[in-house]
């Protein structure tokens, strides 16, 4: 039996243009419909012991492009599923509420106004979470898709895109018909866009709903008194 001869060795990179760093990453993201990013396939000829052969064939060169890079031996590139998981793993900001009347106390049969806000902790709407995914810089920017205002008495408003507002013009308001301690909150449904290696922004086909921090609103019953 003769000695093993040279063989082709393959590797892949995302089809993001020169040096993998320009806006061509958007092309890589949109070129495929199977949840993977288009990849450039490189190959070189190596000897049986793994050393590259002498000459042009022993130098890494472009062989083609593929939408199935992870089916090639040794390929390990980001996929849309990985992007979606990174999105779900973000430490999102929990939405809060500004309530009028102030002091988190209101009265039965009195319109109560609600306004959305987000504290500085966590990653909030339009902020950017930056990480590294398989060697590629990944930026994810969450955006509000919808809001749900939970009033604590079994009623809610939403999903809506309204941020509400203060008295008298706020369009998110509720009138309680009974007294009690109401656990109110704002639930935020986030969508997001992302980019790899500083390329063009692309939409993540997914949403995440984050339950807001509960705020206890005390509803009191006004009592009428007659004075002489």
Describe this structure in words.
The chain is mostly beta strands and 228 residues long. It contains two helices and 14 strands; from the N terminus they run E-H-E-E-H-E-E-E-E-E-E-E-E-E-E-E. It starts with 6 loop residues before the first strand and ends in an 8-residue tail after the last strand. The mean pLDDT is 88.
Extract low-pLDDT stretches. none
Q: What's the average pLDDT?
A: 88
Q: Report the radius of gyration as a whole number of Å.
A: 28 Å
Helical percentage: under 10%
Task: Provide the succession of SSEs.
Answer: EHEEHEEEEEEEEEEE
The separation of the N and C termini measures 119 Å
Sheet with the most strands?
8 strands, mixed
SS class: mainly beta
The number of E-state strands comes to: 14
Percentage of β-strand residues: 35-45%
Shape: rod-shaped
Give the topology.
Elements: E1 7-14, H1 25-30, E2 39-46, E3 61-66, H2 80-88, E4 96-100, E5 105-107, E6 111-117, E7 129-133, E8 136-150, E9 156-160, E10 173-175, E11 180-196, E12 202-203, E13 208-210, E14 215-220
Parallel strand pairs: 5-14
Antiparallel strand pairs: 1-2, 2-3, 4-6, 6-10, 7-8, 8-9, 8-11, 11-12, 11-13, 11-14
